[in-house]
Amino acid sequence: MSLSLQDGRTLCIHQDAERTARSIAQFSEKDARTYVKAAAKFKEYMDVFIAPATYCRPHPAMEAMAKMNSHEIGRDLQALQPMSPRAIVEELFENEHVRTFFLYASCMWGLDYDLEGLGFLVPLYLNRAANYRLVVGGTHHLAHVMSKVLYKNGGMIIGPKPVSKIVIENGRAKGVETEDGYYYEAGKFIVSSLNPHQTFLELVGEKHLEPDFVVRTNDYKWEKTSFFHVHMALTEAPEFKAAENNPEVAKSFIHLFDYESYQELIDHFDAIRMGEVRDAGFNSCFPTLHDPSQAPAGKHTILLEEFAAPLRFFSEKDWLKMKREVVDHMLKDWQIYAPNMTWDNVIAHNIQTPLDVAYRHPDMKEGGWAEGAMMLSMHDRFRPVPEIANYRIPDVKNMYICSSNLHSCGGIGRGSSYNCFKKIVEDFDLPKIWEEKGREY
Ligand SMILES: Cc1cc2nc3c(=O)[nH]c(=O)nc-3n(C[C@H](O)[C@H](O)[C@H](O)COP(=O)(O)OP(=O)(O)OC[C@H]3O[C@@H](n4cnc5c(N)ncnc54)[C@H](O)[C@@H]3O)c2cc1C
After folding, report:
1. Ligand 1 site, residue 356, Cβ cutoff 6 A
2. Is 275 in the pocket of ligand 1 (CB under 6 A)?
3. Ligand 1, residues 109, 363, 421: which to mutate, most atoms within 8 A of Cβ?
4. Cα 259 to averaged position of ligand 1 atoms, centre (Å)
5. Residue 424 to residue 398: CA distance in whole angstroms
6. How remote is the CA of residue 402 from the centroid of ligand 1, in Å?
């Protein structure tokens, strides 16, 4: 990942912490030394605590506390918990460009910069910034391969058919009705990958639920930010000006642009919350520089991503109007760093606003990406509400929920479905594959 400045300097995070330190040292020797120590610690936090915790169900409160207290890393993470990403970044680093870079990397996956209570996630996101991964052939390959496994094992995918009702009889989930009037009977159980409002209030229905649970579900909070996503097909790869001094910048997986100061980034975060649209920084990725199979020979693809307000702030008309404006300003700003990024270089483009996300994923209610805000009161064993943090619905037998509104939040590798699978395996006495030799989780 890299941050480019208009004066041609770049700051790069490499997988190798020493190389990252050499890049940071252009800005601050002290920050470079701090980074090497912090990166080693964060890797240990990931390996020992954070990654394993992602792929198991949340522990009961007392058990979790005892586990954390009994281990040095657990105690370190507890010390970070009350701190906001901003406080952690400012405690670690002194230089404003270094701070900008690491605050962005801490918050680009949904943490609010001043949110207190989830500070232990900052090491996760900073470790991730040095370890991004791309699915060869494009992300759709992952879904296709998974669907092949499903069919091979006798499963079937029926769609697109929105589910309009989950039929409950005598406390059991019996089947689902779809909007076109079909009814599908459940063999053994039903698993919902939809948000809590859809699953409980719209599809199951309040009459099957405890009143307190309904109140808490109604109180479920949505994300405060979303993104504009612009996908482009390009005639030629970007010619980075900064690559003249630092050829490695061209190989960066994620490029961050247009934040010349720390305050600009903070102001951008604040503006989004207030529903303001401004010409601000964004990040960008060129999949074809790393995986040429994603475009015809010699051609390229690009993804541009800029923070946006949640869906509720603007009307449909406003979002549609913003589409062209956002692409225009991104391309204009891009040309400061890579002059050949003009409309002449663009073969085709597609922009997704929060409105498009919400149309395609009705479960992403505010056009976000994690079916709900990341905050302490909706985290871990409280996500989405304590009664169902165990992936099973208490008032209805044989009904489960597996989506990113459960531990451990959004992202394609974040474990909620796997954790739900583990719960089903236990309930139905199936083989516990995670106990097989050689498996970590
Ligand atoms: C634009 C965008 C970019 C992202 N980029 C990344 C990334 O780079 N890396 C990463 O790790 N994560 C990324 N994410 C996040 C990741 O995709 C999500 O966190 C993840 O998909 C959440 O999984 P889920 O099962 O909870 O919801 P979903 O993936 O949304 O699955 C729920 C499915 O249910 C369908 N549905 C909704 N309502 C109904 C209904 N009534 N009946 C039937 N079906 C219904 C939806 O259409 C959807 O297909 C991105 C998300 C978005 C929106």
Report:
1. no
2. no
3. 363
4. 29
5. 9
6. 12
H helices of 202-292, in order, are 211-218, 262-273, 287-290
3-state DSSP assignment of residue 365:
coil
**pLDDT tens-digit map of 31-45:** 999 999 999 999 999
Q: What is the CA radius of gyration of the chain?
A: 23
Upper half-sphere CA count for residue 153 (Cβ side, 13 Å): 6
Half-sphere exposure of 52 (CA within 13 A, CB side): 11
Q: Is the CB of 369 under 6 A from ligand 1?
A: yes
Q: Coil, strand, or helix at residue 430?
A: coil
Give the separation between CA 376 and CA 116, rounded to whole angstroms: 8
Which tokens is 342 given? 């003009």
| 356 against 276, higher pLDDT | 356
Is any atom of ligand 1 closer than 6 Å to the C-beta of 408? Answer: no
410 lines ligand 1 (CB under 6 A): yes
Give the residues across from 300 on adjacent strands: 234
Q: H/E/C letters for each residue in 143-199?
A: HHHHHHHHHHCCCCCCCCCCEEEEEEECCEEEEEEECCCCEEECCCCEEECCCHHHH
**pLDDT > 70 in the chain, percent:** 100
Closest atom of ligand 1 to 370 CA is 19
Examine the pLDDT at 414 and tell me if it is beyond 90: no
Mean pLDDT of 130-159: 93
Residues 52-68 pLDDT 10s? 999 999 988 888 889 88
List 54's β-bridge partners, or say none.
none
pLDDT in tens, 216-227: 999 999 998 999
Distance in Å, CA 47 to ligand 1 centroid: 26
Determine the 3-state secondary structure of 284 from DSSP. strand
Q: Spell out the domains of the chain, with CATH numbers in brackets.
A: 1-132 (no CATH), 140-221+370-435 (3.50.50.60)
Residues 45/76, Cβ–Cβ less than 8 Å: yes
* Rounded-to-integer distance, Cα 336 and Cα 329, Å: 11
What type of residue is 155? G
pLDDT at 160 over 90: no
Supply 312's token pair: 């509720």
Atom 18 of ligand 1: nearest residue by CA position: 411
Using the mean position of ligand 1's atoms as its centre, give its distance from the Cα of residue 109 in Å.
14
Asked whether the predicted pLDDT for residue 23 surpasses 90, the reply is yes
Tell me, what's the ipTM?
0.97
Q: Which two tokens stand for residue 14?
A: 């490499």
Expressed in angstroms and rounded, the spacing between residue 153 Cα and the centre of ligand 1 is 24
